[in-house]
Amino acid sequence: MTTRSNTVGLQRWLRRQLRQPTPMREHLEAAVANDDPAEARRLLATFAFSDEQRHHVERLIDAWEEELRREGV
To answer: Residue 34 carries which DSSP code?
Structure first.
């Protein structure tokens, strides 16, 4: 697996926001590790983030998707 700056940023953000290693957080981390932004978005929709948090994480996922497109993944 190639380490990408956007996936690293997303993983760090998730760990800061979701401090407890719950099964849902593990599923999110697996979606990121497996280059599955659609699954990450689906899972994140179940969390009660503030508008600011949600906007930030959506921007992180948008950047991740763009990075995947550029790499042809």
So the answer is: T
Q: What does pTM read for this prediction?
A: 0.76
Q: How far apart are CA 59 and CA 44, in angstroms?
A: 13
Specify the 3-state DSSP secondary structure of 20. Answer: coil
C-alpha distances (whole Å) from 41 to each of 51, 70 are: 15, 20
Decide if pLDDT at 3 tops 70.
no
Are 72 and 21 within 8 A, CB to CB?
A: no
The number of domains in the chain is 1
Domain range for 26? 5-71
Per-residue pLDDT tens for 27-53? 888 898 898 999 999 998 988 889 998
Give Cβ neighbours of residue 40 (< 8 Å, ≥ 6 apart). 10, 28, 31, 32, 61
